[in-house]
Every structure is written in C-alpha cells, then in structure tokens.
Amino acid sequence: MSKEPAKRPLKVAILGCGTVGREVVRLLLTQSDDLRARIGAPLEIAGIAVRRSGRDRGDLGIDPALFTTDAHGLAVREDVDLVVEVVGGIEPARSWLVDALKAGKSVVSANKALLAEDGATLQEAAAVGGADLYYEAAVAAAIPIIRPLRESLHGDRITRVTGIVNGTTNYILSQMDATGAGFNEALDEATELGYAEADPTADVEGFDAGAKAAILASLAFHTRVTAADVYREGITEVTAADVASAKAMGSTVKLLCIAERHVDADGGESVSVRVHPAMLPRTHPLSSVGDAFNAVFVEADAAGQLMFYGRGAGGAPTASAVVGDLVAVARNRLAGARTTAESPYADLRIRTVAEALTRYHISLDVADKAGVLSEVAAAFAGHDVSISTVRQEGRGDDATLVIVTHTATDAALAATVDALRDLPIVRNVVSVMRVEGGEFK
Amino acid sequence: MSKEPAKRPLKVAILGCGTVGREVVRLLLTQSDDLRARIGAPLEIAGIAVRRSGRDRGDLGIDPALFTTDAHGLAVREDVDLVVEVVGGIEPARSWLVDALKAGKSVVSANKALLAEDGATLQEAAAVGGADLYYEAAVAAAIPIIRPLRESLHGDRITRVTGIVNGTTNYILSQMDATGAGFNEALDEATELGYAEADPTADVEGFDAGAKAAILASLAFHTRVTAADVYREGITEVTAADVASAKAMGSTVKLLCIAERHVDADGGESVSVRVHPAMLPRTHPLSSVGDAFNAVFVEADAAGQLMFYGRGAGGAPTASAVVGDLVAVARNRLAGARTTAESPYADLRIRTVAEALTRYHISLDVADKAGVLSEVAAAFAGHDVSISTVRQEGRGDDATLVIVTHTATDAALAATVDALRDLPIVRNVVSVMRVEGGEFK
C-alpha cells in the first residue's frame, strides 16, 4: 500500500476532568503513537473544560493554558473537530453537545442520564450537523455492548436483553448472597470500600440501571425508549430472607435490567423495559457475575444466546471505551463519512409493567390447618395465575408456604398477592420477588 | 428528519449454499423489511453460486434462475454490489474474492482458513478496489469479537487474548471432564451427536482453532500473523488421567488459543500465538464455558478483563454474523465510505513456541526411595525452572509425583521434561500439560 502524506492533527475538546476525563487524557498521551497509526492522523488535545480553574493538575503533564472553565466556548470552537463529554447530568451538558453537534463536531459521550432522557435531541442535532454521536462508555464502561447492538446484530432479530449493569448493587447483592448479611449491612461495607457513593440513591434505587436499560432497549428494538418508560424497582427492600429463599431454590438475587420483545394478541409487537431485583437460577450465565462486574446477556433469533462480560465502571475502563469511540469518529472524520445513526423506525409500543410477563416467587406465613393450600391455590386460580411449584417449610406456628408461579402478567401477579394478603389464613406475605431466567432451570 | 427518496436496491451475490448459505438466504428473506430500514435501501439477492445445479432447493423460495455454478462470473458481475462468501477453503475462494474486491465489490466472508493463511492478499485487493472486507463470522460465529477488536478496543493496549474457539473439542473435553471418559470414547459420542465431523482432524488437531488464533492475534496486535505462525497442539493426546489430575487441582482441561504480547529484553515487543490443551483453574471465567459454546477472553491495559460468550458455530449463528456485516458494508456503500482496513503497522516480532512463557503440570511415576524428590528437583533447577507446588500421591510401587512449575520458557520446560525422562528413578512421565490462567488461582 502506498504511503499517504501525513494528515493534519484532529483536535479534541475534552469536557470534564474528573476520574474518567483524567484517564482519557492519560490514554491520549500514552497511546498517541498507536492512536495516530490506527486513525491515520494524530489526535491533539484542543482544550480541557473544568469546573474550577486553578486546581493543581500538574500530574497530567498538560500545558496549563489548555484548561478552561468555558466548556461551551471550547465545544463549539472553530478549530475543534471532536468533542468528548465526561461531565454527566442533563444540563448544561445537553446544550453544549447540541451546539457542538450542530456545528459539525462529532461527539463521544459517556453521559447515560442524558442519552436515556433525551437521546433524540442529540441524534437530531447530529443529523443537522452531519456529525457522529458515539456513546459506548454510557453502558457498562469498556464492555463493548453498544457497538454489537448498533452494528453486529443488525442482521438478526433481538428478542431479549438482560443485563447486570450496576456494579454497586451487584456488589451489595453478591455480599448478601455470600455472607447472609442484610441490605443495610452490605451497603455499609460497599460504602466503606468505595463501591457505593455517599448518596447511593441513583444506584440502589435503580435509576442508574434504568437509564442504561433505556439505552439498550432503544438500540435492540429500534424504538425510542426513555428513562421515563422504564419500570424501576431498587434493591432496598431485598431482605436476607429473600436471598436465603433464593438460595434454597438454587437461585441468586440480582438487580436485572430487562428489555423484552413481545408479540401482541393482534400480531403486532411491543416491548417491555424494566429494572428490578429478581431470582435467577445459578445455572444462568448471569448468576455467576459477581462483585462489581457487569454483564449483558443478549438473545436473538439467529445468533442464539450471547453474553458480554467485564468491568462496568471505573476511570480506566470507561476511558478505554471513550477513546475507542474517539478512534471511530476520527476515522469517519478523515474519510468524510458519518456512521448511519440508529433509527427508531420500528417504533414499537412500550408496555406498562402491568403487561410485562414474569414469574413470582412468593413466601407466605400461614396458619397450619387443613385446607390452607386449597385456599391459597384458589387465590392464584382466581387471577388466572398458574402455580409451578409449592414447598411447605416448617410446621405448626412456623409454617411457611413457598410458591413459584408460571409466567403471567405482572398485573395478575400483583392482584394475586393483594388477594393473598386479604386471606385470614395468611398471617404474613414474607417476600415477593420476580423470577427470571426460567429457561435455564 | 426528512424522508429521503427510496434508494435503489443493493445487489448481493452469495457464493455457497450449504448450511450457512441457506441460513443467510433465509435471513435476507425473512428480515428484508428490517434490513431495508436499517440500511436505508433494500438488499436484493443477485444470484447464488452452487457447486451442483439441479438440486432441489425449492424450500428456500428462491427463483431457480438465480442459482448458478459460475461463482467467479457472479462475483464480478457488473450489477453486483456486495459479495458473501460462505464456501470455505483457500482456492478457488481466494481468486473469486480477489477479483470481486478489485472490481470494487465489498466482501463479507466467513472463511477462516483463507483469512488466516492469506488475509493480506484480500486486504490488498480491497484497498485496490476501494472496497470493504468484513469477516465477523470467521471467528466464533455470531459472537461479536472481530468488531470489538477492530474498533471498540482501539483506544486501548491489548495484552492477551485467550479463547475457546472450537466447539467440537470443547464438547469432547467437557464430556471427559463430566464423565471421566477417555478421548476416543468422547470423540465417538461427539460424532454420533453431530458435534464432530466424520473426519475430525481439523478440529481435534487444532487446525481450526489455529486459524482463528491467527485472525485474533493479527487484529489484537496490529501485526500480520498467519496460520503458519501459530504453534499448534491438538487434544488427541489428552488422557482421562490428565483430566482427573486437573480436577484434583481444581482445574479443568480446555483447548485454548492464546495470543500474548511480551516485552523483550531489549525493550521491544513481541507476540506469541499458540493453540494447545491446558489446565485452567475452575475460578477462571473460561473454565465454565461448556459443551459446544465458545468464548473469548480479552485483557487490555485500561479496559481490564472482558469476556465474549455464545454459540461459536452452526448455520443460524454464523448467518447472523454474516448478515450483520452485510448491513455494515451496505451502509458504507450507500455513504460512499469505506471502513479503514486494519493495518499491521506495529509489525511485532512473532515468538517461537520455545520462547513462549508458560507453566507446566507434570505427573511422574517414581521409585519410592529416599532422595527421589531431591533428584527430581535438581532436574528442574538445572534448567532454571522454578517449582510452584509438589504433591506426592500413593506410596511404594505406585508413588506418583505431581509437579506444577512457575512460569518459564517452553524451551526450558521441554528440556526439563527430557531430563526427567532420562532419570533412572523416574519410571514414567505420565502426563505433561501446560497450565494457564494462573492469575485466577
């Protein structure tokens, strides 16, 4: 192949210099020769937008003149070709990126909250400016999952995406499973070890996983799904008893994000997208994803079952994904090309959680007398919920019934639980948890 | 976004109509609406090259006039835009693809043997014709591994790729592990179940895995690695005793393909690429990849450890990867763009297997008398091989020494084994096997 003349450097604006931004800078500096060879032109840092100037960032080895507090000015600056956004949050990040994209700058973003709430606005701005919008780092950090969904599986029909996409909650649940600890105890330990933030709400209430679920569902089903469309339940109500009950049936409790394709009664299709804790059989590949690791399990008609596994958070893994995207948009820029944006052409109806098909594991304290099982079974039958297994534990005053259902709508299952609570012979509904991954039992 | 005018169909030539070719045709027909939406133009089958005409292929629902035995003529035909090659083998596939690429047709190939032996010739032809060459299906079928290596991880420095990339051998070894069967017994069962071909040589001798190792190493290290550069050892010598011995130390035997980056004494870098059975600790994520599944484990400086898992063979999974690539090259064609080809710019030296750093598990029948361990240990020390663990099993005439070494060059380890064979107190070298995944112990 003929030697091509050296290309002018592509100039990169970096918005944000926290944990991820610093690692991006470090990769751009330490990998610069390889990046030049892979792209066909050098990448040059045009500037780094920071919240506060004057901090000592000498360890990065960057000319102090490159730091600025004017993120918007940097993002739209004439000489900037590519913009990296690792600030997070909806505003002002959205305004900066919209203006940068409209001005023709390609954007690499790790901002899951923004993409899940209003990815459409960014996509439209990218179309107006003829620019690329890449965001591999927004879900599961360095695990390549956006690109496989956006490109590799485009010849196939994806039926379900199930993910463990939040490291904090996975660490907490893994600890509860390993030690028998309760939620609060496990959370305290996670906080001490730096796996949970001082305010863990976004993680433990499932907001973080919900944003990622929206992004994955949009790509998998070519349908616009926003964070508001995702049914969300966190792990704060998961008890040591739930985890022990899961163990007893050969399962483990995981916070899952699930995006499923359904065929409706009229032959049309719809999707359900939800985040909630669920019991997963230990034979399911996701059940062995422990500690702070992430994994995404994809099912497609032709490809079958695929799993993507790795570290889903952290400065270096996230920066790896950002710089990988940067190489792609830089190559496109040099080729004068643009990657066709994902299109929400399928525009499938989004189901409410009530319509989602799921299974329940229900544990009841019951009076130990004749006819209990028959009354309980009648409550299920009355809502058209079919029982898969019943297990009676203990006797006398400590009698517990553990029931696992077949698949039914969440609405029917929730109504069944309400009916059980009203039965005089049911002293207490000890735990109710969804069961997933049934096909692996 | 404005409605764009309907684009003319892109015409696809399909070379080969075996298991994979038929599934490609099926996907193109059943997914045609989705494919048109994802690409922005319809795909139209221009022709299907078959070895023998006149066979009944009515079940495909294809106009019989589209079948031809002139594969070359079809591949270079004026109206053809894209060529899918699912024939396999070096020639005549290479000539067809070279001419098609030079004529500007983008190519999607599942031909691992050709890509591993002479990918460079295809890349050059693609550069001449300004065409794309995609081959996700050549390694691990539908598991997206080529695109992550080729694109997602481009911002990172990959240090090692370890894969289980042959389903036949993984099925055989999984059976040996589960049932204690010997190699021949497990092979017979695999043949009966259709997991092994009538002539299983390419699988059990590691040729298939070797070709995939060459392709993965080339992408991971930006260095031209061909099948001839890969050290290759099959699984025919793996005994039930080896598998039992692995079990005893909490490991399992897997046929691994390994591509590693090394830093040489002079500060330069080199790579070693090899395929051989090895003991892997059961705590390593690859150890739980059972039956005919495939998985590729990637380690990179910033991303850390990633794993990609799924069905690595079969008509439908392979076709999913082929059609996913077809969408990518079709989009490029419409955009007038071309994906920058992977470049072997790093051109790292390829180590011989003698230089590869590995660990050995050695099992010896020894005479049970004083001083045995000291003589054996001296043989290791004489070749600068450090011993990690020694375990003595049995007593008297049945005394067995099981030794696991620390990392050493394969040459030093092989020389140590030769020296052990020459020791009068060593009655028999029962088994010698490499040990991998040590960092997971």
From TrEMBL, chains A, B:
Reactions the enzyme catalyzes: L-homoserine + NADP(+) = L-aspartate 4-semialdehyde + NADPH + H(+); L-homoserine + NAD(+) = L-aspartate 4-semialdehyde + NADH + H(+)
Pathway: Amino-acid biosynthesis; L-threonine biosynthesis; L-threonine from L-aspartate: step 3/5; Amino-acid biosynthesis; L-methionine biosynthesis via de novo pathway; L-homoserine from L-aspartate: step 3/3
InterPro entries, per database record: ACT-like_dom_sf (IPR045865), ACT_dom (IPR002912), Asp/hSer_DH_NAD-bd (IPR005106), HDH (IPR016204), HDH_cat (IPR001342), HDH_CS (IPR019811), NAD(P)-bd_dom_sf (IPR036291)
Statement: the UniProt record of this protein carries the keyword Calcium: no
Chain ranges of the ACT domain: 361-434
SUPFAM superfamilies associated with the record: ACT-like, Glyceraldehyde-3-phosphate dehydrogenase-like, C-terminal domain, NAD(P)-binding Rossmann-fold domains
Source superkingdom: Bacteria
The protein's Enzyme Commission number: 1.1.1.3
Function description: Catalyzes the conversion of L-aspartate-beta-semialdehyde (L-Asa) to L-homoserine (L-Hse), the third step in the biosynthesis of threonine and methionine from aspartate.
Protein's name in the database: Homoserine dehydrogenase
Species this chain originates from: Cryptosporangium japonicum
